[in-house]
Amino acid sequence: MCDFMCIVLYTRSTHNLTTNMFSLQVLFIGDSTNRGMMYYLIERLNETLQEWQKVHGTKLYPGVNGGKTLISYSYYPQFWISPSLRPTFEKALEHLLQRSHPLENTDRTVLVVGGVQWLNSNHLQIIHQVLKRENLLNILVIIKTLGIGFHLPVDGVHFLTQSEVRNLYKENLSILEAAKNYGYEVVDTFTITMGRHKEFLQGNCGCHFHEVFVTAFRVL
């Protein structure tokens, strides 16, 4: 697991975490699994999560960590749009970078890319090409790999057979190898979710194993 995510996951002190995240700009691009990681980071930094919309576009979060950590997010892929009209990954990444300007060409800028099952090794080549074109090759890139979701048969939801799961595993290995070649850091969520296959939510949320609960407190 990469150093950046280790800081986020294992820094117990909120003060230490917020200090480590000063002046960082963190960009997320991916599906709802990546969006969930972003909201976890926001909650850790703000000590609360005031909003958790199902964002399916591009959104900026300038008020995180007292305004000292800038976070932006773009949903990809936009599966509800016809494939012939759907923005390519390259265009989606370019749009996120442009919306997040100005960006510093150092590891103080972090790009987190990932999705449950759409990501493949070709996307990493596109990332490199876009960052080179934008003069951002020195930023920190983190690849969140694939996930084991959609392996439970549910009516009306895409379902993976055992053969398709094996192919997913092979693709994940290709992503890991490509990330190593490009010098990108990795969070191997495929391995993590494989070990938690019984904890996934049912129905349309078959790629998640967490929920947001609103707890009501009564003042006596």
Please tell me about this protein's structure:
- The chain is an alpha/beta fold and 220 residues long.
- It has a single domain, classed as Rossmann fold (3-Layer(aba) Sandwich).
- It has 7 helices and 6 strands, in the order H-H-E-H-E-E-H-E-H-E-H-E-H.
- The protein has a 6-stranded mixed sheet, with helices on both faces.
- Helix 4 crosses helix 5 (121-133) and helix 5 runs parallel beside helix 6.
- The termini are far apart.
- Mean pLDDT is 84; it is low at 210-217.
- This is Cadherin-like and PC-esterase domain-containing protein 1.
- It comes from Myodes glareolus (Bank vole).
> Order of strands across the biggest sheet?
2-3-1-4-5-6
Q: Radius of gyration, rounded? A: 18 Å
Strand content: 15-25%
Distance between the termini: 46 Å
* CATH fold-level topology: Rossmann fold
Just give the CATH class: Alpha Beta
Which CATH architecture? 3-Layer(aba) Sandwich
The largest β sheet comes out as: 6 strands, mixed
The H/E string reads HHEHEEHEHEHEH
| Mean pLDDT over all positions | 84
Count of DSSP-assigned helices:
7
Helix content: 25-40%
- Shape assignment: globular
Poorly predicted ranges? 210-217
Structure summary, number of beta strands = 6
Look at the helices and sheets and give the structural class: alpha/beta
Protein name: Cadherin-like and PC-esterase domain-containing protein 1
Structure described in brief:
This protein has helices spanning 3-10, 14-20, 32-46, 89-99, 121-133, 162-182, 189-194, and strands at 25-30, 58-64, 69-75, 109-114, 140-144, 185-187. The protein has a six-stranded mixed β-sheet with strand order 2-3-1-4-5-6, with helices on both faces. Helix 6 (162-182) links the parallel strand 5 (140-144) and strand 6 (185-187).
